[in-house]
Hints:
Blueprint: E1 2-6, H1 10-21, E2 25-29, H2 33-40, H3 51-60, E3 63-66, E4 77-80, H4 95-110, E5 115-119, H5 127-140, E6 143-144, E7 147-152, H6 162-167, E8 172-175, H7 180-192, E9 198-201, H8 203-231, H9 239-247, H10 268-281, H11 287-311, E10 318-322, H12 337-347, E11 351-355, H13 360-367, E12 372-373, H14 377-381, E13 386-389, E14 411-414, E15 427-430
Parallel strand pairs: 1-2, 1-4, 2-3, 4-5, 5-7, 6-7, 8-9, 10-11, 10-13, 11-12, 13-14, 14-15
Bound molecules: nicotinamide-adenine-dinucleotide (NAD).
Amino acid sequence: MKIGIVGLGFVGLSLSSVLASKGYEVIGIDNDIKKSEKISKGKLPFFEPDLEKTLKNGLRKKLTISNNFSLIEVCDIIFVTVGTPQKLNGTIELSIIKKAVKEIGKVIKKSKKNQIIFIKSTVIPGTLLNVILPIIEKESSKKNGRGFELISNPEFLQESRAIQDTKFPHAVVLGGYKNKNMQKAKNFFSKLHSKTPIIITNHQTAEMVKYANNSFLATKISFINQLSNICQNIPGSNIDDIAKIIGLDPRIGGKFLNAGPGYGGSCLPKDMKALIKFASDVGINPALLNAVEKINENQINEIILLITKEIGIISSKHITILGTAFKPNTDDVRESISIELIKKLLNKKAKITIYDPKATENTKNIFGDKIIYSKSLIDALNGSQCAIIMTQWKEFENLNNIIIKKMKKKIIIDCRRILAGSKLNAKYYALGIGK
Ligand SMILES: NC(=O)c1ccc[n+]([C@@H]2O[C@H](COP(=O)([O-])OP(=O)(O)OC[C@H]3O[C@@H](n4cnc5c(N)ncnc54)[C@H](O)[C@@H]3O)[C@@H](O)[C@H]2O)c1
């Protein structure tokens, strides 16, 4: 069984590494030459726990990394894992995936194998049958079901635990026609994930499942953030206790109820926008989804309100931002609320210093010399007039009275309530705890 994987980002590189380390012969393709060269040497283009070890293990076995598409001609199955970002107007950008499947179509034209092509990239319902399939059929001069099989296989991994999620997904969804190739696909995944439920459905339902999943997660976050804002006005109340207690109700569940600055990252914001646009296009008023998004967008104003309340005019104040990654254990800053906050504070002429254990380089790519980058927590606080905890990095739990001694004004705004239990000689405000 030879496996081709097209697009070596968080999803594709994790999948390539895990499959190769399990002994499959894998050919990973990325059209970014520098990236594919780096990966082929066992170096990561981004930080993801356990990935480097898994990649190196895969490379020692049967993993080939290249930018040469023709290598996948010999593959029995091909995964498409390229990015599907958003356009400026919020709709889904399909040009990247169109280009990738065009290349795949050309390559499978020459192949004698009856390849199964799994689309893992998140795409709006209808994209496989109306956009991707016609491209592959045209380029390969083959028909779906005769020469190749196109199956939707949405991905649910979370960055920061991509390897774990790739090894042990909570579900495998296969969207397509119920035929022999689908049975082959099912057998492949059953062997790989013997304990995971495998659900077979049609293309469009599988595509929609991913949006249902992410919009539900976004809804949970906006729900708890709205409650957190209410709690902040109830002296003594604590959103974490409330989340913990309601989470014990099995109908609710405890995950994704962490109040904070709002959801960010490479998936939830763009998938929400794409779903909202899609709903409008099919004549549905997505009132709930709109509200979820609005609450998320407003959450940053809650933080600015707190800052203004505590330090007055923001202009020329020295503010430290702790954490720029959209969540801990990643260096991904795509759509990070922390990045948005920095932009807003810079507009108000604040002097910004940041510290993030992993995301400094990616933050530099955005702000260049407009802000200061610290190498340690303690340096970041030197001379600061206000520190804002944005990302729930474990390291920030070390913040104590000795470390904050270096601050010019000891004001801490904790958007993650990491220090809620600490006795700090500081003016301490936590999002979601009423004062
Ligand atoms: N990152 C996540 O947590 C996550 C989770 C679930 C689903 N998804 C979805 O999976 C898809 C991939 O996400 P990602 O975060 O891994 O993306 P990414 O942007 O990190 O990586 C995509 C990779 O594809 C490469 N690429 C682009 N065009 C190519 C082409 N024509 N040929 C070969 N390679 C090409 C890029 O160079 C890049 O390395 C997206 O649709 C995303 O929405 C992502």
